[in-house]
Every structure is written in structure tokens, then in C-alpha cells.
Amino acid sequence: MIILYHPRATRPRSRRLPLAVLALAAALEGKEQYEIVDGNLEDDPTARILELIARHKIELLGVSAMPGPQMVAAMETSREIRRLHPHVPICWGGYFPSIYPDAALNARYVDFVVRGQGEDTLLELLDALRGNRSLDSVKGLSYKDMFGLRHDNGERPMKGPDEFPWSPFHRLPVEKYLGPSFFGKRTAVHHASIGCPFNCSFCGVHAAYGNKEKMESPERTVAILTHLVECYGADSVQFYDMNFFLREDHARELCDRMAHLNLRWWCEARVDIMSRYSDETFAAIKRAGCAMIFFGAESGSDWVLEEMQKGITTQQTLEIARRTRQFGIIPEFSFVIGNPNDPDRDTRETLRFIRKIKRINPDSEIIIQHYTPTPQPHDAGGEMYGKIEVPFPDSPAGWAAKEWMNFTLRIDTNAPWLKRRTKKLIDNFEIVVGSRWPTVQDIRAPRWSRIFLQVLSAWRYALHFYNFPFELHLANQFISLRKPKRESL
Description:
Layout: E1 2-6, H1 19-28, E2 34-38, H2 45-55, E3 60-64, H3 69-84, E4 90-93, H4 95-99, H5 101-105, E5 112-114, H6 119-129, E6 141-144, E7 150-152, E8 179-181, E9 184-190, E10 193-194, H7 205-209, E11 214-215, H8 218-232, E12 236-239, H9 248-258, E13 264-269, H10 271-274, H11 279-287, E14 290-298, H12 302-307, H13 314-326, E15 330-337, H14 343-360, E16 365-370, H15 396-400, H16 402-409, H17 420-436, H18 447-463, H19 470-479, H20 484-488
Parallel strand pairs: 1-2, 1-3, 3-4, 4-5, 9-12, 12-13, 13-14, 14-15, 15-16
Antiparallel strand pairs: 5-6, 6-7, 8-9, 10-11
């Protein structure tokens, strides 16, 4: 038997379908005996895995790991399984080991690392473990041999979603994953592409999943959504693609096909691409049920966007703010502030730019984060633009330390180039703008709490006075309004 383990990554009320392990399960379905253990569903996932080991011969424990809390949960469970059952091979896959394969393999409890897309690599690894092929023939695999020496096999070309079977939804109690959200009472999730053709210097997606985006056909996307609606009662969906609207013709066809499902939905898109879409396509997107779109605006400075290799302009972001207001779609604009080459200038210009966005479209949701670098695979130095070296941890335990957990979650990056007063300005502005326009996505917050925060912060925002917002910190602790940034990590 193969165990596919999805460590806990969020609170129970925020759990969604574990798409990563479902994709692997689709590759195994009908071929292998397997079980999915989801830490977001199980009270004690480690105990559940130990129970399966006691009842079955386990050929492989496959662990999916994102940086942050999920990586910590993966580390704790893997360490315990290795202690109690040292004969069980453990393989890590997902975003964390794809970006930090050295750190993952440095753990004594990790035998194999799958880099990037894992479906075919998993099947070939099983063949190798059964003696039907050599480990060095499995592309996309890193591993330690019997002497502890490390091997990195060649990269595996990415395949599009249409080349793999559907997720075996029947293997999970889907109804327990369709929770309420701003978009509906029973919100599903879907991933309709892989890879990213853009080269943003601060992002690891391109490095982990390829420089070409392969998209699912509109027919298949709508067929899967129809299945979720008809069999499980889904009334809304969040698309987890990095660039949901890569081509206008694809976007138009998909929206025309899915309009009859009456779903409300959220997705991510690029400012430059959507700013060129016609009014007719925007109208089709709105008719199809799109309620909110996340955009990586990143900075209010064109010189910073150029250094980031973002490929967009501030004028395009303003155009998106205007057009989303025209068509009644809420934009989420994310900013990573603190360019290491001139963090003070970047901060000043970006805060002014955010105020400009709010004048154009007050409904814009603003997400503010400190700039955090991401190394390329196999890059131990962690070089980012500006030729600044960051000494990244060399093990999962290192990444689990408070300093690096805060770095990963962008709570407090301790960036050496960011002066304390500049960091304080960013943080203070964030709480002021977040209180002046509380997010609409917290469906539990009573109306009075939003009004209270708006009144309390209005004078600060009007006067550009962000220093010492003690009353806002106190009010936010009392109200505990959901923060979109925290939910999206």
C-alpha cells in the first residue's frame, strides 16, 4: 500500500480539497492500493498513518509539503514514522522540497524528493523500489543512496492537466471540504493549469513548476465543475492557478461554457494580460460569476517592477482598478514592498500608489507584504536581484525555527536592507488602510465591527498620519477581523 499524506496547513473551517494529493491519487487509481491521510481532516494524522502501517505492508509514504505550517507538520510526522518504522521509505514532494530540495534531503527521515510535477515520478519511483528500474532513471527525483550520497536526476518535462485522469473525489468525504466563504455556502477549489511563463524574480513557482503554463481545456474544466455541483452541491469555487486568464480566447470560451452553472468564483490573473481584454470579455467573465480577482501589483514604482522582471506597469494596474469597478468585480491587489536597492523610495512611492488605487476603485482589497526572496532550485546561496545573499536554512528543522517561519509567512522577515522605521511605516500603513476598508471576505464579522474600524481609522487615512496606531491595533485584536494575506499563505 502507498500512503499519500497531506499535512495540516490551515484551520478546520478553512480547509479545502487537498488538490496536490488528489492529483497523485488520480495517477494511482485503478493501479495501486493507496490511502489518503489529510491532516486538515484527521484529528491525529500521525496515529492514522501508524494504524495503516500496522495493518498493511507500506511501500512508500508520500508527503506533500508547502513552506510554513504544513512543512512543520510534515517534519513532525515524518520524524515519528522514521523513529517507529525505519523500514518505511519516505518521499517528500510539493512546493517546499521542489524549491529547497537540499534542505529536505538533509533530514534523516526523508529518503526521496520529488521536484515539480509528481504524478509520473511517483509511478516510476514505485517501479524502482520494486526493482523494475534503476533510481537514476527516474526524472524529477532526488534521493540518498545506501551510503548517504545525494543524487539529483534530470528535470521532468511538465504535462498539462488534460494528460492526466480526473481527481478521484470519491476517495474523500467531499462534503466536509465544501465550507462557507465570501463566495458561497459550499465553496470548492480547482486547479486548471500548471507552470508559469513569467520570470518574476521574487517568486518560486516558475522554478518549481516550469516556465510554460499548460492549461486544462475549457471542456474538462466545466465537466469537473459540473460534477462538483451536481454530486456535491458546490455553489462557488476558488481557482488556484497562478494565471487563470492567460489567453483571452481561452478565457472567453471557458466563461461562456460555465455561465450556466451559476457559480460565484475567485481566481488569480495578470495585470498586463487582463488590461488588454475587451469589454466583451470582461462582461463574459462577470456573467460567468466571477466575483473577485487577485492581481500581483507588487509595487507602485515602475523602476521596481522592471527590476523584479514583473513585466507590468503601474498604469496597467490603475487600468485594471478602473475596469474591474466598471464591471462590478472586486480586485485584490498584492504588494511586496521593500526593494533592497532602495527600500525607502519603493515604500514611499508604493504607499502613494495604493492611495491612488483606492481613489479609482474603493472596493479594491489591498494585501501588503514585505519583500522576501526565494532561491532557485539547487541554488544554495539564495541570490535575489540586487546581488544580496540570504543564508537560507539547510534543513526542515531550520525552516521550522521562529525566525524562518516568520520569514516564510512574511510576518516579520527581518530583512537586513529594510530599516526599522521603514518597516514600521509599512506595517502601520497596512493596519490603517485595512481598518479604513475592512475586507469583505470575513463572512463572520458583524456589520458594526466594520463601521467601527472605518470610523476609528478615517482621520488617520485622511491626514496621512500612520504613526503609533495603538487604537487600531487594540481594536483589531478585539474584533479579530480576518486578514486576506494570512488566509492566502
